[in-house]
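WARN retry 2 of 3 for item q-0093 after timeout on previous attempt; input resubmitted unchanged.
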Amino acid sequence: MSDAITASLSRQTGLLKELSVLAGNIANAGTAGFKREASVFTEYVNADLAPGGVAMGALRGRYAVMEEGALVETGGTYDLALTGEGFFGIQRDGEVLLTRAGRFQTDMEGRLITARGDLVLDEGGGAIEIPQEAAEVVFSPDGTLSADGLAIAQIGVFDAPQASMKRVGDTLWRPEGGYAPREDAQLRQGFLEQSNVNPVAEMARLVEAQRLFEAGQNLIETEHRRMDALLRALNELR
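OK item q-0093 returned
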C-alpha cells in the first residue's frame, strides 16, 4: 500500500466518523436540551516518508459543546428551563443521570417525572410529590416548588465536571466523576431550553465533510490505478 493511500485511509476514517456526528447534530436540532457534538482532528507529519514527508490527518476525539440553547416560552406548568450552568437530576433504574431537558409531567401518584417515566429529583436526591388537588403549582427562580402558595419541595439542580460526564442518550449524561448541588441555579417555569445546534452551520459543515470525503476517495482510486499500472508494467518487463 502506498504512502498516499495510507494517509488517505486515516483521513477518510475520521471524516466518516465526523459525518456521523454532524448527522446526529442535525437530527437533534429540534430536541429540547440537546447539546451538539464537535470533532477534533489532528495531523501527524512524518518527514522520513516520501519526498517532502507525508501528513496523516485523523479524528482523535469528539466532545459536547455545553453552551446554552435559546429559551422558548411554552406556558406549560411543568416545562422548566435552567439559565446558566447546572442540570436537572433524574433517576433511571436506580442510577442518577443529569439532563438539561426540562419537559416534565406528573404520574398517577403526583410525582414529577420525565416523559419516559423517570423520577425528577429534589435537592436531596428524592422524588418530588405534588398534591393532586393543588390548583396552582409554581416553581420559583431558585427552584422552590409551591402548591397553592405553600412551599413543598426544592427541585434539584446539580453540577458535575464536564470531562467526567458521559452521554448516555440524546439529552442524558452520566456523571461518572460524581455530582454536587448548585446553589446559584436560576429556573424559568413555562420555558424549555432548545438545542444549541445551528442547523445552517451544521449543514454547511456536513456538505464540506462530504466533499472532502469524496476528494479523498478519488485520490485513493487514482493512486490505486497508478499502482496497478506500475505493477502491470513491471510484469511485462519480466
